[in-house]
Every structure is written in structure tokens, then in C-alpha cells.
Design goal:
This protein is α/β, with parallel strands linked by helices and 307 residues long. It is built from twelve helices and ten strands. The chain has a single domain, classed as TIM Barrel (Alpha-Beta Barrel). An eight-stranded mixed β-sheet has the order 1-2-5-6-7-8-9-10, sandwiched between helices. Strands 3-4 form a two-stranded parallel ribbon. The longest helix is centred in the middle third of the chain and has 14 residues.
Amino acid sequence: MAVSELKFIRGRHVRPTPLSRDQKPEWLKVRAPGSENYVRIKGLMRDMGLHTVCEEAHCPNIGECWHHGTATFMIMGDTCTRACTYCNVNHGTPMALDPGEPGKLAHAVDSMSLAYVVVTSVDRDDLPDFGAGHFAETILSIHAKRPECQVEVLIPDFQGEEAPLRTVLEARPDILNHNIETVPRLYRTARPGGKYPRALELLQRARRWAPEIPTKTGLMVGLGETPDEVVGVLRDLREVDCQILTIGQYLRPSLAHIPMERYYTPDQFREFKRIALELGFGHVESGPLVRSSYHAHEQTKSFEANQ
């Protein structure tokens, strides 16, 4: 480990902030949404019966993103077959797929004149292909309806099976994203339906099978991990040639979710970014309010410009 990394892990930068877990620091306070464009997009979502992870996950950036006309669409319903303890999305038995959803979503993207869209989903372990075919149809529908629109997909792990991942890659998304979420030690507690090695393997397979499609992942901090564990994850991600990285603060959705153990300061997030760039990531977004899809279009443009 480099001396600069040890300074971050053992030095003054990692001392806990003098705040209780219930006392939100100033850098996490955002203005309540309500702009004209936010209201317009929310109405469009309701009229078309579409779901967004912006709403389902109570994203703190919803006002900013919707004001600028961007959103992360969530396909295949709003009920997940898994029960990750950090996630605010409903879990249980999902409804049947809507075969018209890819077309509806493509129409919405065209109606909003979007140049970039992120498509994600709940886990659908109840489906034979885990929803991969629905992802592929959605990508193809958007590209057919609005060819100039770039499509980023944030996919589940498909239980580690190869065929579903190939199905998604063959539909030619512009970015393939799968979130690593947390450090290996906390997987059993935070993400009991997932496996850390399986997440890394998915990203590695994507690079091997479709090297022209950049891979991306997201990590949240504040669950009780140590900074050196975070750096270990960054090293693992570079071992599988993951290229775009987001790091953000975990915020507990409710008392029913896994507790938040600590706040990281903006300076600490900047240090994580510095280390990640030194390790070779092509683009890094690291900050308290950063989420996987935050400034996604700008992330992709920055990554492409540096290639």
C-alpha cells in the first residue's frame, strides 16, 4: 500500500465526524424539489405508468436531475425479489412483466428529447432469464425510437449466469453498470442475496465479451466499512478492468433498514477519488450525494474524452 493511501487510512482524514448518526451534516442538505420541469417530468411518469429509481430509492438528487430533464427509469415493476437491508425498494412477489413497457419507455424518452438515459430494474429472480430479455428489448426500443440517445443499463447480477449477461450485451448498451455496493465483509448483512465474487465476475465477463462497452460500478460508504477495506474494493475492481466508478454516502431510508455507522466528509470523498484515479479508473465521481446515476451523462462524456 502506498504511503499516500496509509495517510488517508490512518491519519486525520478518517477521524469520525463529531455528529450523531441522526444529525445530518450541512453538506447533505438539499433543496426540496419543485421546479417546473420537475413537475412536468413527474406528471409524464405518472401518465405513462413508468417507475423511476429516483423516486423508489428516495434519491436526494431527484430535484436537480429532473429539473435538468434526466431520470433513471426502473423497468419490470417496483417490487424486488430480494431484500437488501439498505434498499428502500419494495420486496416481495412481483407482478407479471408488461410486454409493452419497452415501447412505452422508448416513447417517454423520445417525448422528453433525452440524449442520455439510464435504465435499471428490480431483481427478478422469478423469471427464467432474470429479466435480461426485457432489458434487451428496452435498449433496442430506445435506440430504434431515438437513435441519438445513449443508453446506460444498471443491471442485477442474474445469479451469476452467463446467458442473461450475453443477452444484454448483444443489445449494445452504451454503458454496462453493475453496482458492487459494499465491501466483502458486509455482503452477508447488507446484500444477503448477492455475492461479492459474483459481482466482480460479472464486470470481468462484460469486459472480456464486449471490450468496446465501458463498465461501471457504484460503492456506498458509511455502513461500517473501514477506509482500507474501501481501497481493497477499488483494487479488486481495477483487477477486472472496471472503468467508471461512483462513491457516495449511505443514508438510512428508515429504522427498518441497516443502520448508518458514520458520515464521511467531502474531503474524505475527494481522497477516495484521488486514490481511485491513481489506481487507473477512467472516471470517478466521489461525494456525499453521489449516486450511481448522478451526472451519468457527464460521467460518460468525461470518460470518452479521456480515452
